[in-house]
Amino acid sequence: MLIFKQKDSAYKNEGVNRMKKFLALLFVSLLVLSACSSGSSSEADADTNDIKVWAWDPNFNIKAAELAKTAYQEENSELNIEIIEYAQDDIIQKLNTSLSSGTTKGLPNVVLIEDYRAQSFLQSYPDMFYAVDDAISIDDFAKYKQPPTSFEGKQYGVPFDSGVAGLYVRTDYLEEAGYSIDDLQDADWEKVIEIGTAVKDATGKQMITQDPKDLGLLRMMIQTSGAWYLEEDGVTPNIANNDALKEAFRLYKEMIDADLVKPHADWSQYIATINNGDISMLPSGNWITPSVKAEASQSGKWAVAPFPKLPGMDSVNASNLGGSSWYVLNIPGKEKAAEFLGQTFGADVDFHQQFVEEVGGVGTYQPAAEGEAYQAEDEFFGGQKIMSDFAAWTEEIPQVNYGLHTYVIEDILANEIQKYLQGEDLDTVMENAQSLAEQQAK
Amino acid sequence: MKIKDQLQPNGLFMKMFLITVALIILVAITVTLTTIRMAEQFFVEKFSITNSQIIDQIQYDFEELNYSIVMAATDIGQSSTIEAYLSEEEPDNERILSLYLVMSQIDHLREQLGDQNVEIAIADQEAISYRTNFTYWPAAPTDIRTHDITETITKEPNKLLYFQDSREASDNYVIAAKALLDRETDQSYGSVYFPIREGQLRSFYTDYVKPGNDFYVLDRNGKVVSSSLTNVIGQSLPELSQQAENMQTEGETYREVEFQDTNQIMLAEYLPYFDMYLINMVDKQTAVGNLIDTKQIALLLAGVVVLALIIVFLVTKRLTNSLSKLVKDIEAVPKKGLKRRLVYEGTYETNQIGTAFNSMMDELQVYVEKLIEAQKQQRHAELAALQQQINPHFLYNTMASIKFLVMMGEREEAEKTIDAFITLLQNTIGNVDESVTVELELQNLKNYVLINQKRYGDRIQVQFMVSPDCLVYLIPKLILQPFIENSFFHAFNKTAKGTISVLVWKEADDLVCEIADDGDGMAACTDLPNTNRNRQLFSGIGVKNVHERIQLLYGTDYGVTITSKTGQGTKVSLRLPAVKEDERDAI
Question: Do A180 and A174 meet the contact criterion of CB atoms below 8 Å apart?
């Protein structure tokens, strides 16, 4: 459809303007008339060959997208794929702004969304996303990826990285305290704190680093026992009676009280803390691997242990942090965008091998886990086959429904946990958080 | 009237037309130029008012931004939590609690700043401690310690200062920064930074940007902090900031300057809190050029001039046409006779001239006619007098001849002669009519011949051959007699005897009379003999008078022609209009 741009010309006198407007109106109405009479097929999908992709994190997501683009364009050279980097918050904001106003103008064809947030988008704007059931087979992917990426029986997300969590450990510090990586196999958090305390005594290095507003650590902890901030319906807050969460709170306070936690305020400080060797352990998603390896001088001093389980309850040594999936927006070019994702992230074993080798990421596409790249030993991690380990842990990640309100509740918890740290009773704090969450998360 | 005549360079039309053309073009160009100039001035004036309002609006937005930043900076400066976090050493397990408070407080302030694209970063003496968006300026937290901005704000600790900084080529920021001072010791314990994306500043004026209408935000040294032309950001344009400063001190709202080789209208406003200049540059060509469509004006002008010229051409032509026609007619008058009158039309003046000319011509004609008439009458009188004069010798001789006949006893002959004599005298002296019929004239001639033959014998015979239809035509009296007399007494001096033939016939509308003799003839004589020298034997009318008389009576188309050859005789031919008795009044 034609959009007539009225050039704002304050310079010209009013009469000319009026005349021009009149002519323009005439012109437009003629066009409209002719368009109407010729049958309004202009609204039909413009067959576009330009696909835009939005993602964050140039070291990881953007790199992966570039790899996919290169792989796909070898066979489909006519498709122009443009990959644009934004901060995750910007992407969330832009999506929310556009989708809530019902417009898709300016939106990309493909957008990366964190699994924690996916449901809130899918449930709020189901018509704005394009189901990819025809492009991928969800059974090829890690099971825990399915709940966040699907809605009402339709698969919307193309699962991307696993976000499988591990406990990155400075083996050199451990050795100074008389421990080895083997002590952390199948360990629970009590064991980890014990080792962390010993390491701190021996080296003066704190155990972990923490952003007081980011409770990723608690999320990882509770997922090991299949619990989440919300009930399985994905809506009802599950805090006051959430034993896993209470245990996580308790452990968190224990670590802080033992002065095992070094605070950081933002991402760069976080990376700096890791690379400076200020901490002995790093519980995180596998996507932190490139950042850890960025400090080449620490090669051989790191290892990755399975994520610790919660003590005294049903819990496994596997969890997840972050992890995201690709979504196709319901705008012209969606079929081609879905095909692009399906043939790369959803099918191409070679591409996933490259993803492992060049980006160091762990995908959730199961057939790829058998590939050679997963079996490679990583000298940075003392020859550990970390990809293989991550892939193995991925399969064990308990499946939870992240639901709609992960971050809303986390903001509440981040505030409430401060009270707990300052000495309030845990049950009171949790009750309080429960009622706040019930008010805010509807 | 021919065009060629009108285009004569000295012609009235040409002069008037060319002068008018020149004047019209001159007036048109002058008026247009003046109008354009006035329009331009008016526009510039009007425009500067509009744009000053725009600038005021933009300035207001800048001040709003500044105000919210100042408020946030003040809050941060007054926060004991932040001061404690930045200045005090404490164990990490306590620090994580205070960090949370600091983060919460700053996040809260950041939320209050809204969607202005302003982030907050706080730094202690070493490095950035917290910032709301780590992708913003600067890249590495430890850079801040040695950063120029930190050094500057440390020197001026109580002020919130603004700086331009770029992280990468297209990643431009304006940083508001302030040192944080301990209220009691006045010692700096850290600093706060508000990185603002350049795009945010640009959004204040981006709605007003049009081609040829650009905005600049310059710091005091001329460094471009923000601009609608993104490629100049970070560059130095000291000439602009200099102009802006001058304008500020002289209180001008706008001035026209030469900038980047184009004429621009420059508006500037000082942003005191930022210590920056907000400058609006308008390309005069684009702005005013749009206003005035030179091509259209030129076309319109040409159209008007052509139209005026056509009107002038037609009117001038009409005016001068009647005059030129008058002149032509006047020129033609001498050729075409006094009876011609001017047909005039057109203006009052030409009408008057025409009337005057015509009445002059009328008077002249009347006068000339009167003169001619007088002359005619005089001549008539003369001729009539001559006509009446019968030579007394003719009378003696005739009387003597008759006496001789009587003496000889030829009574019959004498009686005949006396009859002829009486008739002749009766017709010449007794008849007062000027014209007589051909018949009567022939009778007179016969009588005259008879008398002469009685006297001189029969050696000269006279024969008359007259077309009978000619007898009724009128001819002047005694018009043929002089030629008979001439032949009688002069043509037969050598020849002993001969014949004189008188022929009268009608040729078309003319009457032709011929008197031919077979006498001596004359040598190459085509002129009429000057008979004044010769004595007339019968009346006062001579041969020369005849010609004169005919022309006087009938005009120059008529008259006498003589052909003669020595030894062969003389032929005199008279051509007269064929007029009958009842038509004579027509003459």
Answer: yes
